[in-house]
Write a structure and sequence with these properties.
Blueprint: H1 3-21
Protein name: Thyroglobulin
Organism: Rhinolophus affinis
Length: 37
């Protein structure tokens, strides 16, 4: 995988964890944003 893909994966995992821990709040676009490689 490219460094961009690795960075995107880390950002995605953080977004998933934040959504799970804050399931009562609707997800924002920035929290689920995945960079285009």
């Amino acid at each position: 995988p490219t460094p961009c893909q690795l960075q995107a994966e880390q950002a995605f995992l953080r977004a998933v964890r934040s959504l799970v821990s804050n399931s009562s709040t609707p997800p924002t676009l920035s929290s689920v944003y995945i960079p285009q490689c």
